[in-house]
Design a protein that fits this description.
Low-confidence stretches of chain A: none
Radius of gyration of chain A: 15 Å
Strand order of the largest sheet of chain B: 1-2-3
Distance between the termini of chain B: 72 Å
Shape of chain A: elongated
Largest interface: B-C, 46 and 58 residues
Distance between the termini of chain A: 21 Å
Helix content of chain A: over 70%
Structural class of chain A: mainly alpha
Shape of chain B: elongated
Mean pLDDT of chain B: 92
CATH class of chain B: Mainly Alpha
Helix content of chain B: over 70%
Structural class of chain B: mainly alpha
Number of helices of chain A: 2
Largest sheet of chain B: 3 strands, mixed
Strand content of chain A: under 5%
Order of helices and strands of chain A: HH
Oligomer: heterotrimer
Low-confidence stretches of chain B: 1-9
Number of strands of chain A: 0
Number of helices of chain B: 6
CATH superfamily of chain B: Cytochrome c oxidase, subunit III, four-helix bundle
Number of domains of chain A: 1
C-alpha cells in the first residue's frame, strides 16, 4: 500500500473495516457469553489499531518529516 | 550564529518533536483520569460481588460507537490529505469529522441522557453521567478544535511541510475515540443487566 | 503607571467580576428552567469556576494562543515589558523560566507562611486543654487549611526550584514550552485564592483530605476548596508535561541521561508522578463536587447505607479514599524527591568529593516514584476496605525503604572522608538528613499493619509526616534557597543570620516532631480541638507546650530568612559567578543570570560530580561566535 496518498487512504479504510468488525464481534460476545476478559481484549486490539494507524504513535521515536 | 539566535529561531522540526511528546504526555495524564472513571464504574456497578450494568439502549450504543469510529476515519483522511497538499479532501474531511462528532454528541446528550436514567439515580446514574459527561466534554472540545483548524485551513494555513496543528487536532480526536473504545464495552456490554 | 494596568491586578478584578457573572448566569439559567432562581451552591460553583478562568484570561495567560486560533503567529516575547518598569514582569505573564521560577518560589513562600500561620493559630489553641479562643468549627477549618495551603506552597516551591534550575542545569536556553510554563504558574494564583476564600462561605471542616460523606454534606466552602485544588492540580500537570519534554528533548550535546545533575533526575521522577497521579485527586474532588451539585451518588451511601438498589442507593466512601490516595500518597514523593535530590546536589559541592553511587541515586528516584504508585491503601488499613488488601500494601510500603536507603547510603558515602565546609546551605542539608532520618525510621512502624492500627489517627502520624515533609522538602528547600540565592540575585546572603536561622530551626523541629510522636503515643488524636489533660499521666500538656513553642521558633526562623533575603539583595556582598566552586552549568555563567542564560552553546564533556579529581571537566562553553 506504500506511502502514496491513495495507499494511505486505503489503509484507513481497511482499519475502519477492522474496527467495525471488532465492534460487531464485541456486541455478539456481549449478547452470547458475555466474558469481560474477551471484551477487554477486543477493546485492546481496537485501541492498538487506532494507536498505530490513526495516531501514528511511532512518530514519537522515529524521525519524520513535516 | 550564536546559540541565542539558534534557539529563538528554533527549527520547526525541533518544535515539532517537543510538541508531539508534550501532547502524548498529556494523553498519558488524561488516561489516568479516564482510568479512574473506569475504576469507579467497576467498583460501584456491582451487586453481590458480580459486575452489573444498567439496561441501556443497545441500538443507540452501537450507533454512536459506529459514528465515532467513522469520524476517526475521516479525520485520518483529512490529515493524510494535508500531508499531500490535497486541500479539498483536507477541508471536507475536517467538516465531515466535525459533523459526525456532533451526531455523536446529539446521540449521547439528547437520546442517552434523555432516557430513563438520570444523574441522581443511584450509582447507575452517577457513573453513567460521570463517564459520558467527561467524554462528551472532550468530544465537544475536539469539535471546537476541528472547527478552528478548518477555519484556518480554509484561509490557506497549513501545508504538507507544516501542519502540526492538523496533526495535533487529529490525534486528539483519535484519542477521544480511543477512550470511547474502552468506555463503550464498560457502559453497554460488560456485566449482568439489572433493571 | 497605574496599579490597574498591572496584569495581576487585572486578573484579580476579573476574578471577582467573573464570579459575579457566573452567579448571575446560573440564576438566569435556573429561572429559565423554571427552578427557584437563586440557589447558593450551584451559583458559587459556576461563579468560582468562571472567576478562575476569567483571572487567567485577564492576566494574559492565553494571549498568544488566542492569536494562534485566528491564524496569527506570535514570536516569543523576551525581556521585561517595554511599556512598564522592569519589576512589573514578576506580576505579568512572562515567558522566561527564571522569572517564572521566582514567581513560583515567592508565591510558594507566601503560601507556606499562610499555611504556617493557620498552624500557629490552632497550635496556640492546643497549648491547654479546653477551648480558649478558636471555636470548634474554626479549629477544624484551620486544620484543613493548614494542610492544603501547605501542600500548595510545597508544590509551588518544587515548581520554583524545577523551573528555575532545570533548564540552567541542563544548559538549555529555556523550557520546552515557555507559554505553557507561564500558564502553569498562573493557575496557582486563582487556585490559592479560591482555597483561601472558602473561609468566607462557611469553610470546610473535614480536614485537607475532604473525605465524604462529611464533605458531601458540609458547607459551600468545600466547593471552593475542590475548585481551588483543581486549578493547582492543572498547574502540576502542565508543569510536569513541560519539565518532562525539557528533560527528554532539550539536553545539549554530551548531556546523556546519566550525566545530568542529580537534581534533574529528582525533578524527572517527580514530574512522572505529577503528570499521572494528579488526575486522580482532581477526579475524586470533581466527583464530590458533582455529587453535591447534581446529586450524583458516587460516595455518600445515604442514610440507608450501601447495598440498596443500584438505581436508588448511594455510593461508597471507600471508593473516594482509593481514588484520593492514589494521588495523595504519591504526592508526598512529589514533595520529597526534588528535596532529596537537592541534598545529593549540594553534598558533593561542600564535601569536595564525587557523589557516591551517582547512577544508583538517579535510579532510586525513579524507583521511589514507581513503588509509590503501589502503596496508597496503607492510608486505609482501618478504613473498612477489603482486609485482603492490607498485607500486599504493607509489603509494597516497606519496599519504599529500599530505594530510600540507597539515598541515605549515598549521602553517608559522600560525606565520608570529604573535605567538609559548613556554610548555611550545607548546614540545612545536614539538618535535612537528620530530620528525614527521624521521618524515615518511623515510617515502617506506621506501614506495618499491626503497629499501624493502634497508632492510626494519632499524633504519632502527625510527627512522622512532618518529619518527612521537613526532612524531605522544607530543610532541602531552604538549603536550595540559600545555595542559589547568590545565583539569582548576584549577592551573598548574610551568613550569620543564616546560621542563626539554622540553629533556631533544627533543634526546634526535632523537639516538635519528637514531641508530636510522644503525645501521640500518650493517646492524643490528630485533627482534634481538645484533649483530656490526664493523658500520659498528666504530661500531655507539657508535650503540647513544647510543640507550640517549637512551632513559633520555626516561624521566627523563617521570618529571619525572609528578612535576610530582602536585606541582602541590597547590601549583600557581590557574589561573583561561582562562589561555591560548583561544577554545574548554571555556576559557569554570570550572577544574576542574564536574560538569555547561555551566551554560547554548552557541551558536556565529563561526569557531573568529579570534585577533587585533577583535570576533570564537566561542561565546556564554546566562546561566543566560535561554533
Amino acid at each position: 500500500m506504500g506511502n502514496t496518498k491513495s495507499g494511505i487512504y486505503r489503509i484507513g479504510i481497511v482499519v475502519l473495516v477492522a474496527l467495525a468488525a471488532l465492534t460487531g464481534i464485541e456486541y455478539i460476545v456481549a449478547v452470547t457469553f458475555n466474558s469481560a476478559a474477551v471484551l477487554f481484549l477486543i477493546a485492546l486490539a481496537k485501541a492498538a489499531l487506532v494507536l498505530q494507524y490513526f495516531m501514528h504513535v511511532y512518530r514519537l521515536w522515529s524521525e519524520e518529516e513535516h | 550564529m550564536s546559540s541565542v539566535a539558534v534557539s529563538i529561531h528554533e527549527s520547526y522540526r525541533e518544535k515539532l518533536r517537543n510538541n508531539r511528546l508534550g501532547l502524548w504526555l498529556f494523553f498519558v495524564s488524561e488516561a489516568f483520569m479516564f482510568g479512574g472513571l473506569l475504576a469507579a464504574r467497576f467498583y460501584l456497578w456491582r451487586e453481590d460481588g458480580v459486575v452489573v450494568r444498567p439496561a441501556l439502549d443497545q441500538q443507540l450504543g452501537l450507533i454512536v460507537t459506529s459514528v465515532l469510529l467513522l469520524s476517526s476515519y475521516f479525520m485520518n483522511r483529512a490529515e493524510t490529505a494535508i500531508a499531500h497538499d490535497d486541500r479539498e479532501n483536507f477541508l471536507s474531511g475536517l467538516l465531515i469529522t466535525a459533523f459526525l462528532g456532533l451526531v455523536f454528541l446529539a446521540g449521547v446528550v439528547i437520546f442517552e441522557w434523555g432516557g430513563h436514567i438520570k444523574p441522581w439515580d443511584g450509582v447507575f446514574g452517577a457513573v453513567l453521567f460521570g463517564m459520558t459527561g467527561m467524554h462528551a466534554l472532550h468530544v465537544l472540545s475536539g469539535v471546537i478544535f476541528i472547527l478552528i483548524i478548518w477555519w484556518n485551513g480554509r484561509k490557506g494555513h497549513f501545508s504538507a511541510d507544516r501542519h502540526w496543528g492538523v496533526e495535533a487536532c487529529a490525534i486528539y480526536w483519535h484519542y477521544v475515540d480511543l477512550v470511547w473504545i474502552f468506555f463503550y464495552p464498560a457502559l453497554y456490554l460488560i456485566g449482568r443487566v439489572v433493571h | 503607571m497605574s496599579l490597574f494596568s498591572l496584569p495581576a491586578v487585572k486578573g484579580l478584578i476579573a476574578q471577582i467580576l467573573g464570579t459575579i457573572a457566573g452567579m448571575a448566569l446560573t440564576t438566569v439559567i435556573r429561572a429559565l428552567m423554571g427552578l427557584p432562581a437563586w440557589k447558593a451552591e450551584p451559583a458559587w460553583v459556576v461563579g468560582a469556576l468562571l472567576g478562575g478562568v476569567a483571572f487567567l484570561f485577564a492576566v494574559g495567560a492565553f494571549d498568544d494562543w488566542l492569536q494562534w486560533m485566528v491564524g496569527k503567529e506570535t514570536p516569543l516575547r523576551h525581556g521585561p515589558p517595554p511599556d512598564r518598569p522592569a519589576w512589573t514582569r514578576y506580576f505579568s505573564v512572562d515567558y522566561n523560566h527564571k522569572v517564572i521560577g521566582i514567581q513560583y518560589t515567592v508565591w510558594g513562600l507566601f503560601l507556606l507562611m499562610a499555611g504556617g500561620t493557620f498552624a500557629l493559630a490552632f497550635r496556640t489553641e492546643l497549648l491547654r486543654s479546653g477551648m480558649q479562643f478558636l471555636g470548634l468549627e474554626l479549629f477544624n477549618n484551620f486544620i484543613g487549611l493548614h494542610g492544603i495551603v501547605m501542600i500548595g506552597g510545597i508544590l509551588l516551591g518544587v515548581g520554583g526550584m524545577a523551573n528555575y534550575l532545570v533548564p540552567l542545569m541542563l544548559g538549555a536556553e529555556d523550557m520546552a514550552f515557555p507559554r505553557l510554563n507561564a500558564l502553569g504558574f498562573w493557575f496557582n494564583v486563582p487556585g490559592a485564592l479560591l482555597i483561601l476564600s472558602s473561609l468566607l462561605v462557611g469553610g470546610w471542616d473535614a480536614g485537607w483530605t475532604g473525605y465524604p460523606p462529611l464533605s458531601a454534606r458540609g458547607p459551600i466552602g468545600y466547593q471552593l476548596f475542590f475548585l481551588g485544588v483543581y486549578f493547582i492540580g492543572l498547574s502540576s500537570i502542565v508543569g510536569a508535561v513541560n519539565l518532562l519534554v525539557t528533560i527528554l528533548h532539550m539536553r545539549p550535546k554530551g548531556m546523556s541521561l546519566f550525566r545530568m545533575p542529580i537534581f534533574v533526575w529528582g525533578v524527572f521522577a517527580t514530574s512522572l508522578i505529577q503528570l499521572t497521579a494528579t488526575q486522580l485527586i482532581g477526579l475524586s474532588f470533581l466527583m464530590v463536587l458533582v455529587e453535591r451539585t447534581l446529586g450524583m451518588g458516587f460516595f455518600d451511601p445515604g442514610l440507608a447505607g450501601p447495598g440498596k438498589a443500584l438505581l436508588e442507593g448511594g455510593g461508597d466512601p471507600i471508593l473516594f479514599q482509593h481514588l484520593f490516595w492514589f494521588y495523595s500518597h504519591p504526592a508526598v514523593y512529589i514533595f520529597i524527591l526534588p528535596g532529596l535530590a537537592v541534598i545529593g546536589e549540594l553534598l558533593p559541592v561542600f564535601a569536595r568529593k564525587p557523589l557516591f553511587g551517582y547512577k544508583w541515586v538517579a535510579l532510586s528516584s525513579l524507583a521511589i516514584a514507581l513503588v509509590g504508585f503501589l502503596v496508597w491503601a496503607h492510608h486505609m488499613f482501618v478504613s473498612g476496605m477489603n482486609p485482603g488488601l492490607r498485607v500486599p500494601f504493607m509489603f509494597a510500603t516497606l519496599l519504599v525503604a529500599v530505594p530510600t536507603g540507597v539515598k541515605f547510603f549515598s549521602w553517608v558515602g559522600t560525606i565520608w572522608g570529604g573535605k567538609l565546609h559548613f556554610p548555611t546551605p550545607m548546614l540545612f542539608v545536614l539538618g535535612a538528613i537528620s530530620v528525614f532520618l527521624i521521618g524515615g525510621l518511623t515510617g515502617p512502624i506506621l506501614g506495618t499493619v499491626p503497629t499501624n492500627m493502634p497508632l492510626h489517627d494519632s499524633y504519632f502520624v502527625v510527627g512522622h509526616f512532618h518529619a518527612t515533609m521537613f526532612g524531605g522538602f522544607v530543610f532541602p528547600f531552604f538549603a536550595a534557597l540559600y545555595f542559589w540565592y547568590p545565583k539569582v540575585t548576584g549577592r551573598m546572603y548574610n551568613e550569620t543570620l543564616g546560621k542563626i536561622h539554622f540553629w533556631l530551626m533544627t533543634p526546634a523541629f526535632w523537639a516538635q516532631t519528637l514531641g508530636q510522636m510522644t503525645v501521640g503515643v500518650m493517646g492524643m488524636r490528630r485533627r482534634i480541638a481538645d484533649y483530656d489533660p490526664a493523658l500520659g499521666n498528666g504530661m500531655i500538656q507539657a508535650g503540647h507546650v513544647v510543640i507550640t513553642i517549637a512551632g513559633f521558633a520555626i516561624a521566627f526562623g523563617v521570618l529571619l530568612m525572609i528578612y535576610n533575603f530582602i536585606r541582602s539583595a541590597e547590601v549583600g556582598k557581590v557574589a561573583g559567578s561561582n562562589p561555591w566552586r560548583s561544577r554545574s552549568p548554571e555556576w559557569q555563567i554570570p550572577s544574576p543570570v542574564p536574560e538569555h542564560s547561555f551566551a554560547a552553546p554548552v557541551t558536556v564533556v565529563g561526569e557531573p560530580y568529579d570534585y577533587g579529581l585533577a583535570g576533570s571537566t564537566y561542561v565546556r562553553m564554546a566562546a561566543a561566535g566560535d561554533d
